[in-house]
Amino acid sequence: MAEILVVTWDGGGNVPPATGIARELLSRGHRVRFVGHRAQHRSLVDAGFEVAPSPRSRDFSGVQESSPVTMARTFSDRGLARDVIAALDARPADLVVVDCLLMGVLEAVRAHGTPYVVLEHLYDASYRSLLRGPIGLGMRLHGLRPGRALAGAAARLVASVPELDPSGERAGIEHVGPVVEWSPRVPGDPAVLVSLSTFAYPGMADCLQRLLDATAGLEARVVVTTGPVVDPASLRTAANHEVHRFVPHAELMPHMSLVVGHGGHSTTMRALAHDLPLVVMPMHPMVDQPVVGRSVARAGAGRVVPKAAPAKRVRPVIEDLLADGPHRAAAARLGEAVRARPGARRAADRVEDLVSHRRPGVPFGT
């Protein structure tokens, strides 16, 4: 039995890969603890996980809008890093699994000497782009050296598929596969799932309203999940709309014909796992959503529409992808690739391999 510490942050789509892998490790008899932002402690405990305290971490919540400066400070947070080291000193771990964006934590764990794995919950190409961009610059201005922290990792596990990741297969990373649940599709009448981010991006309520306007009167059932940021009561709806704050997508997607989303990696991979084409409306140009949307469009499994697109421009795109066509075969091909790499199981296998082959007192890679 191994002792594993998982470090995450309150960002939305980055959390399910971490919790999915942790749940798989728990099912195999390992001891797993989390360290994260205080705002997510309750949800982690409610999900059945042990959570170590994080009194020094910055106050951060994914349901509040945050500037790039705030995000850079959050990812560089040495307070959260001190909480992680305190958890390790209180109860040593065999391995630490760290969210790839928490560079302050990665630097601290490297210096501490406990072996660690970097969990990339997005395309590796998107991750590299973020590190080269303003957020990465902000990390470096905070005195961090991302290259050094990544080079010291025992492994870099990418929870995605190389068929879509522009990086493809390359040395130094391992595509373990998306951490998503899926069930066989259930035949039925046409149905569309509309769901944007659980993270507070500017203008999301307006975007959801335009998507509702675009699907009003469509010859399909339209299920909308608003998430914690947008109040369902604030939206105008039509007779064919069902609007909920939250319904598990794993329950909905087997009944859907199309997904309209923001290009979040987790939602996109779950849709493809169900062979569903996508309409992608990215919420922010500086994150991975535009890259995800373009990759799906290049593969022929969907289309990208701008965030500011009016309803009259979005509706024909939705109608085209709701119909039969080559986009459904493309989505099915990608679905097969996603299902062939069960991310939670493969990541847990890799963690177990790293722990079992580590000789006490000998660093990884020697």
From TrEMBL:
Ranges of residues in domain Erythromycin biosynthesis protein CIII-like C-terminal: 210-353
Domain of life of the organism encoding this protein: Bacteria
UniProt-listed InterPro entries: EryCIII-like_C, Glycosyltransferase_28, UDP_glucos_trans
Coiled-coil features, chain-numbered ranges: none
Protein name as annotated: UDP:flavonoid glycosyltransferase YjiC (YdhE family)
Species assigned in the record: Nocardioides marmoribigeumensis
